[in-house]
Amino acid sequence: MCGIVGAASHRDIVPILVQGLSRLEYRGYDSCGLAVHASARGLARTRTTSRVADLMAQVQSEHVQGLTGIAHTRWATHGAPVVHNAHPHFSHGTGADAETARPARVALVHNGIIENHEALRAALQARGYLFSSQTDTEVIAHLIDSHYQGDLFEAVTAAVAQLHGAYAIAVICRDEPQRVVGARAGSPLVLGVGQGEHFLASDAMALAGVTDQIVYLEEGDVVDLQPGRYWIAGRDGRPAERKVRTVQAHSGAAELGPYRHYMQKEIFEQPRAIADTLEGVEGIVPELFDGIGQDGRTGASAHRVFQAIDKVLILACGTSYYSGCAAKYWLESVAKIPTQVEIASEYRYRDSVPDPKTLVVTISQSGETADTLAALRHAQSLGMHETLTICNVATSAMVRECKLAYITRAGVEIGVASTKAFTTQLAGLFLLTLALAQAKGRLPEADEARWLHEMRHLPVALQKVLALEPQVIGWAEQFARKENALFLGRGLHYPIAMEGALKLKEVTYIHAEAYAAGELKHGPLALVTAEMPVVAVAPNDALLEKLKSNLQEVRARGGVLYVLADADTRIESGEGMHVIRMPEHYGLLSPLLHVVPLQLLAYHTAGARGTDVDKPRNLAKSVTVE
Ligand code: F6R
User: Fold this and answer.
1) Is 621 a catalytic residue?
2) Would you state the pLDDT for residue 437?
3) Strand 213-216's sheet: what is its strand order?
4) Do residues 401 and 476 share a domain?
5) Ligand 1 center to 615 CA (angstroms)
6) 71 domain residue, yes or no
7) Closest Cα partner for 82 from 114, 117, 47, 111?
8) Can 2 be counted among the known catalytic residues?
9) Are residues 151 and 210 in the same domain?
10) Residue 97: per-residue pLDDT
11) Less CB within 10 Å around the terminal CB: N or C of the chain?
C-alpha cells in the first residue's frame, strides 16, 4: 500500500527518503518518487514506475540533493500506474498547459482517497489550475496552492478543511525551503523526532535507523516540521501535546536467511511466532488482554469487561476475517458466548442491531486496515464501547483505539500473503476463548491445564507439519498446471478451507473457491471434473464420517482429491485420491496445524508457476484505503 516519508534536516535527506521507501517496499506499490527542495532549482522531482532501487539510481545520476523533501510509494487507486500519476504531485498555476505553467510552488504526497475530488477539481480548473494526472492527490496540491499566502502551515490547514475522505499528506513549498507540513485523517502518519532534524512517515518502520522517537499523530492533526523544531495543531486548530514514544527499532528489510522468499520464511517461522505469542502465558487470566495505555500496560482492565459482556462481534478483513470465523466455533462451543463474525467493509455500511453488552473484537495483522478501523468506529458510534483487538503491531491505530488488546508476536510480516500472522491470531483467539469461558465460570481447572499444555506443545506440532513440505511440493507440481481448485472443510475447518483457497488465488492466480463440504451437492458439484483438483481438510473429528461421504460424492464424479487427513481417519491414497497424513490429531486447535500445508501448497505452486510470491500482482500489504 502507499507509503510516505518526509524529512527536514541540515544534511542531505535524499538517502533517508530512499531508504525509508525501501523499508515500506514490501507492502506493494506500482510507482515511486521523491521531491526535494534543491536550493538552486527550487523543487526537484524524480518519479518512476520501476522499483525503489531504480529511483535511487536515477537520483544519483541526476545528482539530486536537498535538506528538505518528501517521498512516496504509490499503489494506484485513481488513475493508472504511470509516471504522470506517481507522487509527488506539483501545483501548477495558469499557463498554456501543465508543463508551461508557472513553476511549481507546492509538492505533495498523499495516502488515502479524497471522495470530493471531482467537485474540487472542477472548482480549481475554473480558477485556471492545470492538471497533469488522473489522481485525486493532485487536487490537494492545487488546493493548498490556492490557499497559499506565504505560510504553508496555514495553507495546508485551510485546504484539509475542504477535504472529504481519508488522507495522510506531506507537503513542501518552493518558498519555504526548511519546512515540511503533514496532516492526517483516516490514514496513518507519524512524526519522527531527531536531533536537529525531523521526519514524517506513514509507518515508524520507515524511520528505523534514523530515529526511534516517534509521535503517532491523531485524527485531524496538522504538523509543521523544521530541522530545529516541530509543532502540532489538533483537529480544533489549537496547539496539541502528543506523547513522544520510543519504538523498538526494527527494520522491514529482515534477512531472508536460507529462504528464497519472505512467504516461505514466514511459514517456517510459525513455531517461533507461536512460542513468542504464548511467552509469559502462565495461566488463563483476563489481564492478558488488558489495554495498552499511554505508558505501557496500564490501560483498561479486561476483568470487568469480560464479566459484563454477553455477546461477541468480530470485525476483520481477508485472512484476519477467516481467523475470526474459526474463533466463532471456539467461542460458542467452549465459552458458550453467542458470536457474530462480520467482514468489516460490509458491517460498516449495513443497518445492524447494536447491543451495548457486546465485546467488539477486531483482528488485524497491521492494525491499520482502513475498513476494520472504520467498522470499529462504526460499532463505537452505535454505543458498543467494550472493544478488544487481536493485533500484531502494538503501536498501531487499532491498538490505540481499542480498550483492550492482545498483541500477537508474529514479528514483522513482509510477504503480502499473510501466514504467521494468521496462526498467531488463532492462538490469541483461543486464549481469548478460554479467558471468556473462565470469566463466565465455564472453564473447569482441569480443562484450563489441558488446554495450556496443548498450546505449549503447538510449536513442536507445527515443526512436524512443516516436515511434510516435500509431500506438499509433489501436490504443488500438479496444481501448477491447473486453473481452478476447490477447497472443502467442515465445521471449524471450513474457515481453514477458505484461508487455503485465498492463499492459493493470491500467490498463484489460480481460481480457487472454498465450500463447507456439505454444500457441495447444493451446486458446486457441477464444477467437478478431472481437471478440478479438490482439496479437503479432514481432521479426525465429529464430522469426519459426514466429510467422507462428501469426498465420495467428488470421487463418483471423477474429481481428484487432495486430502489432509489425520491418522485413524481410514482415508487412504489410491486412484484419484492423494493423502497427506497429518502427524498429530490436535482437537480444537487443529486449524493451526491444518492451515500450514495449505500455505505451503500455495507457496510452492506459485514457485512452479513463476509468480512474484512476495508481491503478488495488484495486491498490497496493509490496506490503508477503503
Ligand atoms: C491475505 C491478506 C489480507 C489481509 C487483510 C487484512 O493474505 O494478507 O487478506 O489479511 O488485508 O489485513 P490486516 O490483518 O492487516 O487487517
Assistant:
1) yes
2) 96
3) 42-48, 31-38, 68-74, 3-8, 198-201, 190-193, 213-216, 245-246
4) no
5) 13
6) yes
7) 47
8) yes
9) yes
10) 57
11) C
